[in-house]
Amino acid sequence: MADTFKLTTVTNSIKAQSITVTDVSGASVTLTIKDVDNMLFVVSQQNCPILQPRFDDFVIPIGDFFTRDSFGADASVKSVRYTLHYKFFFAPVLQGEILGHYSDSVAALVAVLLYFMKNTNLSGATEFLPRLESFQPQLDGNNTKFHGGQIAFDVTQYLET
Amino acid sequence: MAGRTVGKWIRVYINGYRMSGYTSKIGPLNCEFTEQESVVLNDVVGGALIGQANISPGTLNGIFDNDAAGLFANDRASDVIRQMMVAIGDRAEPAAGVPVFAGAFRQNKYQAVGEGAVAATVEYAGWDVNASSLLYSNPWGYLLHADAAETAVNTAIGIDDYGAATSFGGVMAYQSFAGNGTATLKVQDAATNTNPSFADLSGATTGSLDFSNPAAGIVAIGTTATVRRYLRWQIVFGTATTVTFALAFLRNFHN
Description:
The structure holds 2 protein chains of 2 kinds. By secondary structure, chain A is α+β, with helices and mostly antiparallel strands. Helix content of chain A is 16%, strand content 39%.
């Protein structure tokens, strides 16, 4: 059987999800989800809310990353386990505003987490589970501060699938 | 089944109730032969007594709940027989052709445990000593009909679970989750996998049952019965117009 590593299939699958959240104006909008090939270095208020891969340490191995699960040398069945890290930008933290949209940001991030908890059958992943990394302001590439947090996805893939 | 799978695709059915939503783990799904005493290295019995298998689903680790269709409401009583089916989906919801562990098992214990979140632990012993399937030592088979509603008879082709006919009988296991009257569930077999070739497998039938409420059971056919290569589900409607059920057949390989 042919082994394939489907990391980009998983990131494509995450990007393809349609998640409704309430934005900073109180309107229901579809969350913008970015893939590794179209991430935004600089995030603006118009882009929000947005979920995109974290530049630093986007992929972190779990355990030995690749594991051989059976006898059979190169033909054995193998698995790969890793964590994908995403940043959630809800809205810019405005001048003089500390807590104004904090609760809205928390509610939106919870909605995103809840969606992924209920939709774990993503293409490219044998096992997929979301995890909250942090509820705290996030910085974009220009060090602009946004309400938001970080979500991680623990992924297991059987390489023969 | 094409390859490996993960636990989230296991489905547990007990007495016509879907218990997967209340189950975090079940197993080991055990079929173990007792070792013969005083066996020497060149003894032809090979350390096992054929037909004396210890078969048990093991322990169900579940969620303590109070739903009408949940584990506590339906399985809190112990020292009773449970009709069980564990279908193992192939990286997807179980479909026809996936492996199934099924049988009638005595429940030994229901235990609510935990100081934080309260969990439920349910332990099972071996085969029901009163079961008609006691002559069989194989709890493993294949799913012929996945959990879904049917409103018409089956004219589709079946599955090839073994690649050849056998002559040691087998056990039909069924779990009916909903319905609106009487019907008969059956297993049919055929030598060639075409609709007109299928005929009722003698004895593998529930008989006419009222499926208005959850129902489950096992039906063993004779241990010398020929079971042809291809298998499929069948339904004959009585007063019912719809029945939601899962059906499996556990082919036997020796007496």
